[in-house]
Amino acid sequence: MDEEYDVIVLGTGLKECILSGLLSVDRLKVLHMDRNDYYGGESSSLNLIQLWKRLKGEDKPPALLGSSREYNVDMIPKFMMANGTLVRVLIHTNVTKYLSFKAVDGSYVYNKGKIHKVPATDMEALKSPLMGLFEKRRVRKFFIYVQGYDESNPKTHEGMDLTRVTTKELIAKYGLDDNTVDFIGHALALHRDDSYLNLPALDTVKRMKLYAESMARFQGGSPYIYPLYGLGELPQAFARLSAVYGGTYMLNKPECKVEFDDEGKVVGVTSEGETARCKKVVCDPSYLPDKVRKIGKVARAMAIMSHPIPNTNDSHSVQIILPQKQLGRRSDMYVFCCSYSHNVAPRGKFIAFVTTEAETDNPKAELKPGIDLLGAVDEIFFDTYDRYEPANESSRDNCFISMSYDATTHFESTVTDVLNMYTLITGKVVDLSVDLSAASAAEE
After folding, report:
1. What is the pTM of this model?
2. In this structure, which CATH number among 2.70.98.70, 3.40.50.980, 3.30.450.20, 3.30.519.10 belongs to the domain 56-105+222-226+294-387?
3. CATH architecture for the domain at 4-44+232-293+389-429
4. Residue of 53, 63, 309, 311 with fewest CB within 10 Å of its CB?
5. Neighbours of 24 (CB within 10 A)
6. H-type alpha helices, 28-154
7. What are the backbone angles phi and psi of residue 318, rounded to the nearest 5°?
């Protein structure tokens, strides 16, 4: 390989494929390599036989589960906010033409042992059984303030500077109780712990507005969308995009050893005795294990079922967030459920994941509150994986390493990582001020 590339991307996980697409659109010369013979890396979608091999080590799943190839089971299942950053990236890059999306039926929150639909607007708050009558009135006032808030119009600020006022202070002004704060912070604003309460309120208000705007796009039961045939479609769509702009893809390349010069800067990648030269390398943590540090562990259960999750209005696709405080934990728990309605399982079959940041050495016991919500299951698997973050200085070695996928079942943190890496690599910010109505062609 005599050519020199601007960037070599190692691994075809979703983050790496999005970056590869963005860099190719920028007309950078990109070579994309993966040691596997399939797309998706850690974020791949598996059929039933592949799933069995990976999680049970046996070849033959039971016949009653249906045809193996009708399953597309995401290893890192996440829904997209309909008005969120990932959808903007898809439209910005025109990847929407390779994909079809369908709205997700329900968005729920766990409160005092039961699950409730997440109220997103002042009108929904009035109907919600989550709160008593007086609390509903207080929440309605708070939601009206958030819906009307416009950063550029001081008249909507009611005398508060949300870059200074903390979320706790803003909530105190409306006198909301702890249960209400719990679902607002974790199920609407999608914060992963309670540290946001002591930070400026502007971020939380923006997150709540995003949730409400995403709800409004589909007039459905949730703010989320999900691709038909699962997330495995996304890496391949970005690979196609990269190829259109001259990017080169090579799968099944063993080892992929990153080479450095005497100063510790990247000079290329060697595989099968050949070295491709480059200025920068992008990869997931598994390709440069000596340049990352472990930051946690994700525990998850995965179930195949023959019914929707009980108490979700028979939703064929749903997210349930179990806030940490409700469980006496340090981190939230997430339930993701999808089914044949998104073409990820045979007719009549549902796939559910229960995921959380592991806090003990007994993930089965930790995941019990989420598993208890599922009802009867046909099969259940347990799995854990370590989470890593880069420990290198990319300005010194030109290695740009993504963070491992977290336990959340929505994409907001994933895309933030990708966009931060893009800015580090190019010095630019992706312009995502796109007209979201342009995406309607790809929506069902």
Report:
1. 0.92
2. 3.30.519.10
3. 3-Layer(bba) Sandwich (3.50)
4. 63
5. 26
6. 48-56, 85-92, 122-127, 133-148
7. -160, 150
Distance CA 272, CA 287 (A): 16
Residue bearing tokens 């046909």: 378
Q: Count of residues for the chain?
A: 444
Q: Tokens 């099969």, residue?
A: 379
- CA pair distance 207, 380, nearest whole angstrom: 34
What pLDDT does residue 441 have? 40
* CA pair distance 417, 53, nearest whole angstrom: 31
Residues with pLDDT less than 50, the chain: 438-444
Instruction: In whole angstroms, give the CA distance from residue 162 to residue 169.
Output: 10
Cβ(289)–Cβ(193) below 8 Å: no
Token pair of 407, please?
């336990």
* Coil, helix or strand at residue 285: helix
CB contact at 8 A, 82 and 208 = no
Alpha carbons within 13 A on the beta-carbon side of 391: 11
Q: What is the pLDDT of residue 439?
A: 46
Q: How much is the pLDDT for 437?
A: 54
Identify the CATH homologous superfamily for domain 119-218.
Guanine Nucleotide Dissociation Inhibitor, domain 1 (1.10.405.10)
Given the structure tokens 């409730």, which residue do they identify?
116
The CA-based dihedral angle spanning residues 19, 300, 407, 80, taken in that order and rounded to the nearest 10 degrees:
60
Show the tokens assigned to 324. Answer: 């940490």
